[in-house]
């Protein structure tokens, strides 16, 4: 099947561009209201053609089923400071009316065998084209900075090994994923202690006025 890839990918590119602006808008709104933003930063990409074909090959997806079977041709990534920010982001996504959530995959509660942690939300997003509306699928990955640090490097190392890490490296990477998660947990504990101390000071000041 010969395909015009530019034409095929155009709505995905439009969706990624629009969703980046919309999701970054959540951060701007929080900043404006002096609220802690659950979003640190947002990135997005359209999957390169070679990766689409590679994934289709491994998942045995025929070329005419790419739109329905490959969910992350349009991919967004939301990075958060704290693990509990992820829940808040998911809550905000569930409230939105500009897309429909099709599926959620919680790889934080159920981490992958590799050690990978992230929360995936698959959405159906309506793109407005000159020929009318076209609904496409997009995958939003929500993770902490520490989870992102691990996943980014593991992904690039994995690429070098073509997905076939030697067992000993697998184990070391898995234990690094745990170390990253412990860092997340300790950061949360520190944040909560600071918040408690701040609440105590505010209460004490109130009593003295
Ligand atoms: P990219 O764009 O290069 O990151 P699968 O059948 O497991 O391939 P599926 O069904 O699409 O995947 O769903 P899943 O597992 O929810 O999402 C796959 C994506 O999650 C991957 O995309 C990665 O971005 C990320 N991911 C999943 N497992 C791991 C992992 O062990 N390590 C890292 N670093 N990332 C992971 P792709 O297709 O790899 O593409």
From TrEMBL:
<dbReference type="InterPro" id="IPR052366">
    <property type="entry name" value="GTP_Pyrophosphokinase"/>
</dbReference>
<comment type="similarity">
    <text>Belongs to the RelA/SpoT family.</text>
</comment>
<feature type="domain" description="RelA/SpoT">
    <location>
        <begin position="44"/>
        <end position="165"/>
    </location>
</feature>
<dbReference type="GO" id="GO:0008728">
    <property type="term" value="F:GTP diphosphokinase activity"/>
</dbReference>
<dbReference type="GO" id="GO:0015970">
    <property type="term" value="P:guanosine tetraphosphate biosynthetic process"/>
</dbReference>
<keyword id="KW-0547">Nucleotide-binding</keyword>
<keyword id="KW-0067">ATP-binding</keyword>
<keyword id="KW-0342">GTP-binding</keyword>
<comment type="pathway">
    <text>Purine metabolism; ppGpp biosynthesis; ppGpp from GTP: step 1/2.</text>
</comment>
<dbReference type="GO" id="GO:0005524">
    <property type="term" value="F:ATP binding"/>
</dbReference>
<dbReference type="InterPro" id="IPR007685">
    <property type="entry name" value="RelA_SpoT"/>
</dbReference>
<keyword id="KW-0418">Kinase</keyword>
<comment type="subunit">
    <text>Homotetramer.</text>
</comment>
<dbReference type="GO" id="GO:0016301">
    <property type="term" value="F:kinase activity"/>
</dbReference>
<protein>
    <recommendedName>
        <fullName>GTP diphosphokinase</fullName>
        <ecNumber>2.7.6.5</ecNumber>
    </recommendedName>
</protein>
<dbReference type="GO" id="GO:0005525">
    <property type="term" value="F:GTP binding"/>
</dbReference>
<keyword id="KW-0808">Transferase</keyword>
<dbReference type="Pfam" id="PF04607">
    <property type="entry name" value="RelA_SpoT"/>
</dbReference>
<dbReference type="InterPro" id="IPR043519">
    <property type="entry name" value="NT_sf"/>
</dbReference>
